[in-house]
Write a structure and sequence with these properties.
With about 475 residues, this protein is α/β, with parallel strands linked by helices. It is about 30% helix and about 15% strand. The chain has helices spanning about 25-30, 45-50, 60-65, 70-80, 85-90, 95-105, 125-140, 160-175, 190-195, 200-215, 230-235, 265-275, 300-310, 335-340, 410-415, 445-450, 455-470, and strands at about 155-160, 175-180, 220, 240-245, 250, 265, 295, 315-320, 345-350, 350-355, 365-375, 380-385, 390-395, 400, 405, 440. The longest helix is centred in the C-terminal third of the chain and has 19 residues, at about 455-470.
Length: about 475
Amino acid sequence: MNPEEPRKEEPTKKLDLNRHEMPKQPPEVRRRNFNEVALGYTADLALDEAKRCMQCKKPRCVTGCPVEIDIPGFISYVVKGDFKGGIKKLKEKNCLPAVSGRVCPQEAQCESKCILKNKNGEIAIGRIERFLADWEAGQGEVDIPPRAKPTHKKVAVVGSGPAGITVAGDLVLLGHEVTIFEALHKAGGVLTYGIPEFRLPKSVVAREVDYVRRLGVNVVTDFVVGRTRSVEELLEEYDALFIGTGAGLPWFMNIAGENLNGVYSANEYLTRMNLMHGYLFPGSATPIKKHARVAVVGGGNVAMDSARTALRMGADEVYIVYRRSHAELPARLEESENAEEEGVVFKVLTLPTRYLGDENGWVREMECLRMELGEPDASGRRAPVEVKGSDFRVPVDAVVCAIGNSPNPLIPSTVSGLEVTKRGTLVADPETGKTTRDRIWAGGDIVTGAATVILAMGAGRKAARAIHAFLS
C-alpha cells in the first residue's frame, strides 16, 4: 500500500462490534506465579480482530497516539496476512511495540478515538500491535532499517527508559552518533525496575533494548550522570544532550510510623522484585521477607502492580487502600480488574493516618479513617472528606506506599541554568523538549512527573525532531 494514497473506506462493510478478548491465565493459577498474565493473540485472533477495522478515510485513532503510529496502515497489512509488512509499518514510528502493546493505555488514547467507540466496539489496537511484535520475535530475524548518511554529530542520552530509548532510536537512524548512559546495571529504566514480570516480561524489555543497540545506539550501564561524569563534562564531548531520567523519588504521606520495618516505598518494593529478581529468591541473591497481610496505599497502576506482586509472594491477604471510591481509581480498568480477580481486597474511601509497630520496630497495624466524597477538586475528581470519629485499625505486617513519585534531584542540582518547577520537574517546551539550557533537551517523567510509558515515548519523538533540526 502506498502511504501517499488515500485509503478507500468500505461503505457497505457491516459493523462488527464484537471485540476479541485476549486469552489469559486463570486467576487461581496466575496469582501464584510470575508468568505473563495476558497470553497474546494467536494469528487467527489477530486476523479476525484486524478485519473489524473500518479503514477510515480520516482515522481519528491516529490523533490519539502520542507517537503518531499509522494505525490503519499496520492493521491493513495484518488483514492481508502480511505480518512482516505490518511490523515494518509499525516500527516506522515505534521502536518499542512489544512494550507499548502491553502497557500503553490504549483505551484512553488511540482506542478512545475509534469510530466504533460510540457503539462500544472499538478495535483492540494494542493487542494487534503486541501480536506483530511477538510474531517478529518468533521469526528469529529482525529487520534493521537503513541509517541515514553519518552526520558526525554526537548526542548523549541520559536514562534508558522509554523516552531515552525513543529519542536514541530516532536520532541514530537520522545519522547521528548516540550514546545512552544508564545509572543501573540493566537498561530499560522503569520498564526494567518498575513493571512486574507478569505484566511486562524482562525478556521482552531486553529484546527491545537489543533492537535499539542493533540500530547503532551505544548503551553504557552503571554510569551515574552527575556522579560518574557531570553533564558539563558530557557537553564538552557531545553536541547535544537529552535528559530522560524519569521520576524515581518516592512520595510518602508523612504520617507516624512510616519509619517502621515493613513499610516500603513502591519503588523499593518493585525494584527489589523486578530488577533484583527478588521474586526468584533463593535462586537470586536478593532476600525478600515473606509477609502475611500487606496493605498497598494508592490506586494507580503502580499500586496494582505492588498488590499483585505481594499476592504472588505468598501473602494471605492483600489490600488496596484508597481514599476515594472505586470509580475514581486512576489505574487502568484492566489492571484493577485483574487485581480483583486474583483476590486483592479493595478498601476504598479509606485514609491511613498512622502505622503502629511492635517492640521490635515492625509494623503491625494501620490506623485509618473512613472517607466520603465531596465536591470535585482541581483534578476533576470528587475530593475525599474525612468522616469524623470513624477511626478503625487494620492488622498488617507490611505496607507499600504507592502514592506517586518525583524526579531525582541529582541532575537538576548539579547543572546550572536548568529551570526546575516546584514539583522538581524540569521546565521544557512541550513541543520540542528544549530546556532553559543551551544544547540540553528533556522529556518523559522528569518533565511531566510520573505518567505513562507511551507519553514518555511521545516526548522522546518530539525531542528527537528538535535535536535533529538543531544539529542540521
